[in-house]
């Protein structure tokens, strides 16, 4: 199995190198495909992302484990006896995908990371009307932070943000900048935005 993975990786690298590449870039890198998140309860996570956030479930697969060897450690850097019970991918509007993992592992920890913790992160969703998003989240009983908070100065002026949390503590954000942000006026590189679907 390891040889098959190595061969597939080599083939992918060769094919990717045929595409467009720029200096100081992973050959063939085109964009952000997904963010992976480990969740404590897969049903709860799928329900939250589909019934509250509005994503759509695309596929589920698994389990994956290696009772006798170190495949899980070699491939993913986890405990050799870790088990991925299920992987589910959801598509969220015009943005990239979210990959949900349900793991069990001998050394598993519940980190509940804050944005200030090293390795902490959040997932942001662009919304057209952030005030309506706040009202909707409140109605659904979702924990929200202060806001919506409009940014009025600096390069990010023009955006409004609102942080909220999934039931298991995952940090999320609603963000809106219908008229763009101040930095865009003189920027050589403009951030990708899901507010206007690509044709």
Report on the structure:
The chain is α/β, with parallel strands linked by helices and 199 residues long. 23% of the residues lie in helices and 23% in strands. It has helices at 2-18, 42-53, 71-76, 130-139, and strands at 34-38, 56-61, 83-91, 97-104, 123-126, 149-150, 160-165, 171-176. The strands form two sheets. It has a four-stranded mixed sheet, with helices on one face. Strands 5-8-7-6 form a four-stranded mixed sheet, with helices on one face. A hairpin with a 5-residue loop joins strand 3 and strand 4 (97-104). The longest helix has 17 residues, at 2-18. The model is unreliable at 2-21 (pLDDT under 50).
Please summarize what this structure is:
The protein is an alpha/beta fold. It has four helices and eight strands. The strands form two sheets. The chain has a four-stranded mixed β-sheet, with helices on one face. Strands 5-8-7-6 form a four-stranded mixed β-sheet, covered by helices on one side.
Q: Going across the major beta sheet, what is the strand order?
A: 1-4-3-2
The top-level CATH class of the largest domain is Alpha Beta
- Note the beta-strand portion: 15-25%
Structural domains: how many? 2
- Number of helical stretches of at least 4 residues: 4
What composes the largest sheet? 4 strands, mixed
Oligomer: single chain
Helix content: 10-25%
CA(first)-CA(last) distance:
40 Å
Uncertain residue segments: 2-21
Q: Which class do the helix and strand fractions yield?
A: alpha/beta
Inertia-based shape: globular
Radius of gyration: 20 Å
**How many runs of DSSP E, i.e. beta strands?**
8
> In the CATH hierarchy, what is the superfamily of the largest domain?
2,3-Dihydroxybiphenyl 1,2-Dioxygenase, domain 1
Going by CATH, the architecture of the largest domain would be Roll
CATH topology of the largest domain: 2,3-Dihydroxybiphenyl 1,2-Dioxygenase, domain 1
Organism: Mesorhizobium tianshanense
Keywords: Dioxygenase, Lyase, Metal-binding, Oxidoreductase, Signal
Signal peptide: 1-23
GO molecular function, one term: lyase activity
């Amino acid at each position: 199995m390891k040889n098959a993975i190595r061969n597939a990786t080599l083939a992918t690298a060769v094919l990717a190198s045929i595409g467009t590449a720029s200096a100081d870039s992973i050959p063939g890198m085109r964009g952000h495909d997904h963010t992976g998140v480990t969740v404590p309860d897969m049903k709860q996570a799928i329900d939250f992302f589909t019934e509250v956030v509005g994503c759509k479930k695309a596929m589920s697969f698994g389990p994956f484990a290696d009772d006798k060897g170190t495949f899980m450690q070699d491939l993913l850097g986890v405990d050799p006896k870790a088990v991925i019970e299920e992987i589910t991918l959801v598509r969220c509007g015009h943005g990239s995908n979210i990959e949900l993992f349900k793991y069990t592992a001998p050394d598993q920890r519940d980190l509940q990371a804050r944005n200030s913790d090293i390795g902490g992160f959040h997932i942001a969703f662009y919304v057209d009307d952030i005030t309506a998003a706040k009202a909707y989240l409140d109605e659904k009983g979702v924990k929200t932070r202060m806001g919506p908070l409009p940014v009025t100065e600096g390069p990010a002026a023009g955006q409004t943000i609102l942080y909220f949390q999934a039931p298991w503590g995952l940090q999320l954000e609603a963000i809106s900048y219908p008229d763009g942000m101040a930095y865009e006026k003189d920027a050589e590189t403009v951030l990708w935005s899901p507010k206007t679907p690509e044709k």
